[in-house]
Batch of 4 targets.
Target 1
Amino acid sequence: MGTSRRNFIHAAAAATFFAGGASAAEIDWSKVDQAMGRTSAVQAAGVHRYGLPRSDLTVVVDGVTIKPSFALGGWIAMLPMGEQAMAMGDLVLTDTEISPVMKSLLDGGFEITAIHNHLLRGSIPVWYMHVGAHGRPEALAATVRQALQLTKIPAPVAAPATPPAIDLDTGALDTILGFKGTPNGGVYQVSVPRAELLKEGGMELPVSMGTATAINFQPTGAGKAAITGDFVLLGTEVQPVLALLRRQGVEVTALHSHMVDETPRLYFMHFWANDDAAKLARTLREALNLTNSKHGG
């Protein structure tokens, strides 16, 4: 995080405290949505999150056609701080989109905090660019929209009236993992927050800003599922979790940071397997037990 951004966050935190608590109501989110060209979903702590799924891409891994909500779901989230906001996000890009998008975002005052892949053996290369900024939400949204115009990320479409069925025993998965998941576009998604207070530049980061372990199940038939996502780990947890996943037949496909000024320092470990869903859930639960994650949810 640059010095100016860090100073902004500290100043915004102090202003919020002395004002008795700034609220998201000070921001006209309809104007922010208009600037973004998309409607946000309101999540914990007043975060407004914009989904940017790559439904235009057909990516196949080991014979599994990846659903956008499984591993191609880009996003931008804004945490309100008075009349301004902290923005963070993860853009899913092709290799030819990376440089023009980066230039556009940098010109608009954003920082690039990570670029990496999540999947192995994909039929086409896909990259993930983590970004961050602060400022007036409308201006941030306009900058993001301008960058998106340099990609083939499609315009938002209405969700189907009948959501795709999840051909898995999701109740059993909930019981094994200890958390209740949510269906999304034919994928069963489970979010597991960490127990610590996580901060970026001194500001608390809610789970809706990408700080929870994400576990996704995409049914592949006969009770099997492909799994992917990322564990959010402390440095001391990386090797134990990596060793357990490998021992149980789950591939570790990426290990990296997403932010540059967070406390405590976090590492994100992505994974992949395609096997019996309940068996995989038990392995993931064992891995969660090696971390300081919350229990039950």
Note: The domain at 170-288 is CATH 3.90.1150 (Aspartate Aminotransferase, domain 1).
Target 2
Amino acid sequence: MAEITAALVKDLREKSGAGMMDCKRALTENGGDVEAAVDWLRKKGLAAAAKKAGRVAAEGLIGVAAGGAVGAMVEVNSETDFVARNDAFQDFVRNVTKSAIATGDDVAALGAAAYPTGGTATEALTALVAKIGENMTLRRAVVLRVSAGAVATYVHSSVAPGLGKIGVLVALESTGDVEKLNALGRQIAMHIAATNPISLDIASVDPAALAREKAILSEQAAASGKPAAVVEKMVEGRIRKFYEESVLLEQVYVVDGETRIKDVVAKAAADVGAPVKLVAFRRFGLGEGIEKKESDFAAEVAAQLKA
């Protein structure tokens, strides 16, 4: 068999656009024959997928799944919103979300996990890219667990059960009634979807974010021209307001508009039958943090025609 040199791998990468490891495997499978390796990659859908990998994928779906004291949430991105309505894409998001419950929130491990129809999740996604013709990425995953209690879920802008544009997990520790815990957790998850808090409690606020907020508030207060002692009190008051707006347990419950979330949780003990502690939450908003390219519709159509 011919030696698989770096030059051969480089040549195949340039011809196919596939990844380095895929090229090396293709050459190994085909005795170093570059043209045969190109065909091999095309049959596997790897060449087609790689050529689409540079496109911005900021649409797609958030998937959530729960199993008692554990819940998982996954974001899978696509280029357009149309793909989110594709049954095959929805099946993929649903399957990898269920897999995450056992695999955990390591995206690499999730991609390497066995897929229900055979192969790995990454291979299934690659085949889906080749079939649908859009770049898709398994972007992120999170898993929350409690030793006793429930992990509740909520999906906003749902397109199918457990699939939508915003996903939330809420972990509640308690030995109380699990069904009632899930109902409470879902209500709090809906609140989180609406308010997008930055942290669970005051102690877990990012120190850098707090420092930036204090600097801004201090400058604004100082501009009032009031004495330093008054300015200090003004900043303290505004920081309390910042906590009330941004920290989950300090926020006012959107359902009744008056009770703080920490009090909602405390009062739930009577209904649940045991003390309840809100220990963690996660919220995924589809495409958040992804820089989207600005283009008009005509340019998007032209780009699709050239693909």
Note: Strands lie at 59-66, 70-78, 136-145, 149-156, 163-164, 166-173, 277-285.
Target 3
Amino acid sequence: MNRVVVTGMGVVTPVGNDVETMWESIVAGQHGIGTITKFDITGYKATLAAQVSGFDPLDYMEKAEARRQDLYSQFAVAAAEQAMLQSGLSGKVAQDRLMVCYGSGIGGIFTFENEHVKLISGGPRRVSPFFIPMMIGNIAAGNIAIRYGAKGSCLPVVTACATSTDAIGQAYRAIKHGYADAAIAGGSEAAITPMGVSGFSNMMALSTSDDPDAASLPFDKRRSGFIIGEGAGSLILEEYEHAINRGADIMAEVVGYASTCDAYHITAPSPDGESSSRAISLAFQEAGSPKGTIYINAHGTGTPLNDVAETNAIKMALPMNSHDVLVSSTKSMTGHMLGAAGAVEAVISILALRNEILPPTIGLNEPDPQCDLDYIPLLARKMSVSLAMSVSLGFGGHNACLSLRKIS
């Protein structure tokens, strides 16, 4: 089996539109939550979101190309470009050995809503001929493949909020088993739209807090729902020898991945946590069940059911004393970026490993007695760990977990 390493990373997030800026915000405990400004929120129950600010697609593409892409695809291409530039991979891998594994939980919902308004107000001839290729959920992966001439497999994974963790995991397996030498993997989302916010809000998933500093509250007993976020995360995965031979800077090694399903409910997590626990346990075992302290970047959405179920799953999954497991939810700062969350959180987990700084769970002022692990409350912690794990759980019962460690 091949070893698989990370040689490039890129992000667009509510707390920074590049890796360095995002990491500085995360370590400082700064959140990107505020009043929704993308549309008129009069009459909306949920009025806060974690919006990307200061993003200009023209930094990454020509105006004509930008006009033919939904925002979620623009985010994806931007994050992929950052990762590819950092990796130095362009021109150093055979086109048919470069794959793309990139997804979105929702896809081009902004385009869908916009074109529907045109249809209703002006009739069918008003609908853009680019409507379909802008809206479909595979087009971010397709645009990335076109940009870099990636002629290997191009897979748009869709597993709701586990999307980009599964995308990275599937790319990892493809390289591990010899089907590709390198992959552009991750996910993107841009669902802060009238329909997106209305839909999540009406199913009672979103926080209705009007205080940005006390809205996204993972593992806190005051939590009442998640804050919707947006953005993208991209990783360049590469076969170890391929990376070594071209002199790449290796940031981390992917050493485990597992995907399971609750097969329980369309939105609620299984309360026994058995399947999500199994995903964590399998990813831990594939990593060699290392000794020492483990850091977990939790799914940690701040919904009443998820945080308790995830806490129970972590306890069941790992054989060591629970005090040797350090957990945080960076969604307390980024909001829930849906299909992009897992990739961004994988980037954060790698930075935690490399910099030996564990990001905090901000806002955790009133711990829930049912959530009784060390969630690194309020302040980042300087600490070295033996393994970092990133957990993602999605509607439909999708569970995914990645294991990452420093290169050795």
Note: DSSP finds 13 helices and 14 strands in the chain.
Target 4
Amino acid sequence: MRTMKLDRINKKILSDLQNNGRLSNVELAANAGISPPPCLRRLRMLEEEGYIRGYFADLEPNMLGYEAEYFALVGLESQALDRLKAFETTVSSWPEVRECHMIRGGGDFLLRVVAMDNSHENTLTQRLTSTKDVLRVTTFPVVQTAKRLPGVPIQIAED
């Protein structure tokens, strides 16, 4: 249960961190127009309340040898809850599966997968198609990404 009010200052802190997670508390405070101690208290509360799920670096896949990215639309033989959970557990353990979304319409899951090259992509797709309960897999290789933003839009309006 959320108990913290998201006022303009809290939204500014969230927006600034979403855009640059490396900002110091001093920079966050200055941007929000408050001093560092109350900014740090607000930041800790935002973390405790669950508004901030974590911090990470956005890495360049190509520089780490991952030259292919694709989405896989997966349909299962059964939509029984235990089968859906089992599939989630299985693919969530694969490091190349970067996102796993249960969806409605046209399939049961949409996965975002990274691979070193086409051969690796083929190996991962074969592994996916041979996974228990998988009925069909349709892959969509990414040719180019025009937009990729983290998080969600945050509207900062005067209270």
Note: The helical segments are 8-19, 25-32, 36-49, 81-92, 118-129.
